[in-house]
Amino acid sequence: MTAVRRWPWPFLLLLVGALLASSNRFPQFTVSPSLILLGFLPALLFDAGFSLRAAAIRRELRWILLLGVAGALLGAAISYGILRWLGFSASEALLLSAVLAATDPVSIFAAMRRLRVPERMRVTLEGESLANDGVAAVLFAVALTAIGGRGSSPSGAVWQFLLLTVGGLLAGGLVGLVLARLLPDRVPVLAPATVVAAYGTYLLADRLGVSGLLAVVMLAVVLGNRPHSASHHLTHRFWRVVGFSVSSLVFTLVGLQVHLDRLTASAVDVLGVVLTFLVARIAMVAIITFRNWPLRMQAALVWAGLRGALSLALALSIPAGMADRERILLLVSGFVFASLAIQGLLIGPVFRGLHVGEGPENPASS
User: Is the pTM of this model over 0.70?
Assistant: First the structure.
């Protein structure tokens, strides 16, 4: 029993869901992508962003942008090239590279809160996961447009990417600045008002045609850095409870999409995808952090590249009539399960083995 308690709770919930899905006694169902994208992700991203301090973000902004934006794009490009070399079709490789471009903030925040790591690494990993969630959603939208043949020129893709990304950040930032002045500093009002703000901002950004995920992240960071008061601290504790509850439900639902028998039958293809994205992350981290981070911390950055709920939600969002949709969904489900089961389960022992957080050594200051 003591050994089980040491296991990360996301893995345990994922495993329970997978075992239920693979049994003949549990009704099979598919989670709607809108349930995860609209029902769960705004709350999860707001909880994560609300806890980030502006001063820490400013100190590590260089690495957050390099890993979370440039790194996500570089990793997607490397993954696409390897998948094409392995024989995947152009559309499969493009969608898989976009869907799996994002690390999972729920898993990473859960791991960072459980482990003692240097602040620089913690803030960088948390910031990266929030940034590349938005980048992955934008890449996915661009990929669907390209595959559908609608405005798929390189200049059109770049413009769409900039519009979704910059527009989402501006929308969330503006709403956050307005609400920071208008929201009263009283617990009975502040906590429920932030819930309405998170979901309202997501819907507003979506209506404007920009990234709702990035808008919610920016909103959370702005509101989370208001002058601290008793009301602010209680609101933060409220969001920690909300985040834990929603993430627990998400991991269980993700597990219910994993059918172990189907994964076993496609084990070779799943392994190929897992190795592809592992190689891509190793290459991306090595290129971006070359000579700036100690080797052991580079290894920790690689291992912390967990995938989760957003990847599955994006895979579920592939139009029903698109070719290879079921195959892509199976491969993404297998990748998410392997990532959370192997990397998530072993992240504590790996970080301790690398002595991350046990010494004063940090990456070079930006």
Answer: yes
